Amino acid sequence: MFSQLFWPMILFMVLFALITFFKSSLFKGKFGEWVVSKQASVFLGEQYVMLNNCTLPTEPEGTTQIDHILLSPYGIFVIETKNYKGWIFGGERQKNWTQKIYKRSYKFQNPLHQNYKHMKVLEDVLSDILEPQYMHSVIMFLPESEFKTAMPENVLQGKAWVDYVKSFQEEVIPAMKLKRIQLRIEKEVLEKSWKTDRAHVQYLKQKNMPTQNEL
Questions:
Q1: How far apart are CA 81 and CA 31, in angstroms?
Q2: Virtual torsion, Cα 44, 45, 47, 50, nearest 10 deg
Q3: Residue 203 buriedness (CB in 10 A; 0-12 / 13-18 / 19+)
Q4: What's the rounded Cα separation, in Å, for the pair 112 and 80?
Q5: What does the alpha-carbon distance between residue 123 and residue 213 come to, in Å, rounded to a whole number?
Q6: d(CA 144, CA 152)
Q7: Who has the most CB within 10 Å: 33, 78, 177, 179?
Q8: pLDDT in tens, 148-188
């Protein structure tokens, strides 16, 4: 009798845990990042090198987490991925943007401002190697969302970010310098682990900064 009840209960608990995980902001955020990585591997050539989920230390005693850093002879692209559904309203200079799903609205940090902070940290890391004008901010929303306001040219949906990156065709970073940049970033990036991610989230909470909340 016990065994007849035990296994259905275990199965129910496993299914519940899986459903909870797939609905979580963590999964949705990581899925969006996986999409960008996959698109890069399929649509960009070998001259592009993608570094994913890069957590860099900041002063004093903080961290910043960059979804993707795309290295290329045509520039360095700092990519922020947003896996949001519904309508998106926002302006370049607005502090917060709005996501609307049916009759419910949610505020989230302007991703342009968010990625600007990422860019400044990376500029400091590469200050003796790369001029800031060769770094470019890219914001990528998955196609499940729909823009309801005009967006800057570097805020894109789906695969359009690839076309934007490919629009940079002038070679501005020699191969040897590009390798130095990659080695410098890999040296500075913190170890990819649950502990690193947890410490970053705790830092954001201490600073009263929004953590990733994908809906």
A1: 10
A2: 40
A3: middle
A4: 9
A5: 26
A6: 19
A7: 78
A8: 999 999 999 999 999 999 999 999 999 999 999 999 999 99
Measured CA to CA, the distance from residue 167 to residue 179 in angstroms comes to 22
Contact 50, 74 (CB under 8 A): no
Nearest alpha-carbon partner for 66 in 188, 183, 208: 188
> Distance between CA 202 and CA 206 in Å, rounded?
6
CA distance linking residue 95 with residue 79, whole number of Å: 19
Tell me which residue has tokens 């990376």. 122
User: What whole-number distance in Å separates Cα of residue 130 and Cα of residue 33?
Assistant: 26
Which tens digits make up the pLDDT trace of 195-207? 454 554 454 445 5
- Round to whole Å and give the CA distance between 159 and 203: 32
Q: How far apart are CA 94 and CA 129, in angstroms?
A: 32
Tell me the two tokens of residue 86: 């519904």
In the numeric block, which tokens belong to residue 50? Answer: 């993608």
Residue 3: Cβ within 10 Å count: 7
**Residue 59 has what DSSP assignment?**
T
